[in-house]
Amino acid sequence: MDPNSGLLSPLSRACSHLAEPCMEGERSPAPREQGGDPHFPWSPVPSSSFADPDWFCDENIQAKRARVETIVQGMCLSLNALVPGNAQARDSPYCPEKAQERKRKQSLPTQQGPLKPGPVGDHGSRKGGPRVREQLYQLKQQLRHLQKHILQAAEPRDAAQDPGGSEMDKGPLSVKQRKGYGSRPWAVDSDHHHQGSRGDLSQKEKHRASEEPRFLPCGGQDLLEILRKELTGAVCQAVDSVLQKVLLDPPGHLTQLGRSFQGLVPEGSSEPSPPERGICKDLFPFATLPRRAQPQTGVLLRNLSLANPLDPPRYPVSSRMIPRPYQGRPANCPLTVPSHIQENQILSQLLSHGPSDHWDSSLPQDSSSQSHSSPESALRPWGAVKLRPSVLSQQQYPLPFTSPGLERLPLLPSVKVEQGGLQCAPDVLPFSSEGLNPGHLKKAKLMFFFTRYPSSNLLKAYFPDVQFNRCITSQMIKWFSNFREFYYIQMEKFARQAISDGVTNPKMLVVLRDSELFRALNMHYNKGNDFEVPDCFLEIASLTLQEFFRAVSAGKDSDPSWKKPIYKIISKLDSDIPEIFKSSSYPQ
DNA sequence: ACCACTCCTG
DNA sequence: CAGGAGTGGT
């Protein structure tokens, strides 16, 4: 009876089957980030062999050493210079934004439990006793050697950039410098805040947390924490560095994927999908999809029809062809798994060599949703709906999920640990990127294609170069709020248009790349058209459009809060964001 | 109280 | 896109 039932039902099912995490909470941030794993098209291998033996084999030992070393160095540094004004500096390098910082700690449980940034830091550094200093100094020397090894092992490829790792003396800085690959417009410094990214380290650190205090004087904890951050940040940098290389080096792979994917679209036209493809797709029932599959995959809408055989086929709503933009841009949505997966395995390892286990979130690659091409569609004036008889299922192109095995490739480990609510970078790193810049905004917009309701934690994870404090966080959240506003306005507008155009079945509303609606959205979030909008976004957009259509059709818009139910639905359909977005220099 | 959100306004 | 008001959830 309820018009929504047709759509919502399947949807709900989809969510529960495909994306448990998703359902965990309305907009609980955690689920996505923890349980969910970014569908990274690549990065299949969970935790098997480490690509870089040097680095991973002795990871434990090395990590430990590195950690100690870092601590030592940090101690030295703080004793020498940083000591004063410690608390202030860390709390607000620049946030004039007031005292707001004071109480809050958006803290994330995950990180270091015991240590508390607050007041402790004040005297922490000062009280580092001389005795300890001596000991530490000795350790420092010993560790320098280790550091060299670590750095070398960590970035063999970057050897050229940092020959000899001569800058060891600079401690953490040397690491930072290493990562100086490429210029990051908005990332003057992205060192701090990285801890959030690689869970394993944090985990290990936790384990050792109990031990460390022994070395540290009373206020040592503060330093410990700072150092901890340093260490994590350094490692993350290294990882990023490698990630960059791996991801960027073989651009061809992604590009090709994206291209092939789209290239197929055109011909699909009105013909029923070819048996093979169609079957493939159609047979991809929710149940078989990995938990996380979810919306991201193009399956969602398609399956709706499956779920409900009686539903008429959806017709693309496109009214105007727009030049097909991006032709060879890296596909951001998980599509098929390229053969270079192996390379990505390295990444996977790098990013997750940790308490893994958070890996299994498998991801459906299906994502490949193919855009439903709009065939000879009779373009509707309002630009969207194209009505067609029955069967025009969306043609499927060579499906993404190449082989069964690949379908369930594990995703990159989700970043489980956040920056632990340490909003301010340790004073040790004075230069941290300040506020948000246009680059951040652009990135945020692109991220919107994947997530409409990002949690602050997620944002922190994806903007490692941003110093998150209350204001920054709020600002970024506000951005997304603004993005949503625009998004929903467009949806409502087009839904009403469809209604006025006489469309009666919401399922006939599908947002295609050549639709007016898409154009508007793309223009807003992807002005330069330099990013290939993921299909998952089209799915969500279509769904949103349909929801608005239903609501308005049903006259629910008379209720002041009629949009809420829609928001609720959409808020559960966020997709995972490609790992590459975690790079502070990504969109560049 | 806080926070995040929506809605409205500039 | 930022501000501010109003709202609802904690």
From TrEMBL:
KW Manganese (keyword) present: no
Entry GO CC: cytoplasm; nucleus
Ranges of residues in domain Prospero: 433-588
Primary site of residence: nucleus
InterPro entries, sorted: Homeo_prospero_dom (IPR023082), Homeo_prospero_dom_sf (IPR037131), Homeodomain-like_sf (IPR009057), Prospero_homeodomain (IPR039350)
Stretches the record annotates as Disordered: 19-45, 87-130, 155-214, 352-379
Compositionally skewed regions (Low complexity) per UniProt: 361-377
Source superkingdom: Eukaryota
GO molecular function: DNA-binding transcription factor activity, RNA polymerase II-specific; RNA polymerase II cis-regulatory region sequence-specific DNA binding
Record keyword DNA-binding present: yes
Pfam family, one: HPD
UniProt keyword terms in alphabetical order: DNA-binding, Homeobox, Nucleus, Transcription, Transcription regulation
GO BP, sorted A to Z: anatomical structure formation involved in morphogenesis; cell fate commitment; central nervous system development; embryonic retina morphogenesis in camera-type eye; hepatocyte differentiation; lens fiber cell morphogenesis; lymphatic endothelial cell differentiation; pancreas development
Compositionally skewed regions (Basic and acidic residues) per UniProt: 24-36, 201-214
Subcellular location: Nucleus
Protein name: Prospero homeobox 2
Taxonomic classification: Eukaryota, Metazoa, Chordata, Craniata, Vertebrata
GN (gene name): PROX2
